[in-house]
Amino acid sequence: MNHFLFFHDRNLIQKILVILVISFLFLVSANGQPLSGTKVIGAGGDYSTFTAAVNALVTNGVSGPVLFNVVSGTYNEQISIGSVTGTSSVNTVTFRAQSGNAADVTLYFNPTSSNNYVVDINGASYITFRDMTILAQGNPNYGIVFRLRGNADNNSIKKCNLNGISTGSTGSGLSVISSDGQPVDNFVVDSNTVSNGSFGLYFDGFNNSNHSTGI
């Protein structure tokens, strides 16, 4: 009788282990797939936050065009988008308010001296933000809304409300859109409302023959 129970328990344990392994492999496979198609950011969506969506984007790359529709609401986040595998003039990545109304989605953060940005495009290409409000707030000395660096080319900001810090300063650290140190090519700023900040657009550090083009 004891031998039967031992044999039965061992079979049960083996079945449980098999189920756990299969579940783990399925989870890894699902999480590791390149992104494509329409995803939703916000309550009840594919990703609850911009940060979660960006992490998935940078980790997995893309295999086709990706549209992140953002549920109406206010998001207190700071995001940095590094190089994304698979992006191209066809496989673009777009973040936009799901409603199409810039007033319905607000992304904001309080920048600091060590992380002076709300949105950081760091080496990523073919990224578009459109139809949303993005603002820096809180710190009178640091207030970059968009920072581009690391040869971040072919990116766009369209039909957004971009709000910097209200200031009388002319310091570059309070620019609404800023780039430092590396050329930025084919950058499109189209039909936005830009408020406050020391400069609307400030590109710095181009002291050689590799100048930005297509702005």
Radius of gyration based on Cα positions: 22 Å
For this structure, the CATH topology is: Pectate Lyase C-like
Q: How many domains in all? A: 1
User: Given the C-alpha coordinates, what overall shape results?
Assistant: globular
Number of helices: 2
Lateral strand order in the biggest sheet: 1-2-5-8-11-14
Q: What is the N-to-C succession of helices and strands?
A: HEHEEEEEEEEEEEEEEE
Low-confidence stretches: 23-30
- CATH architectural label: 3 Solenoid
Distance between the termini: 81 Å
Top CATH class: Mainly Beta
Largest pleated sheet: 6 strands, parallel
Strand percentage: 25-35%
Mean pLDDT: 85
CATH H level, superfamily name: Single-stranded right-handed beta-helix, Pectin lyase-like
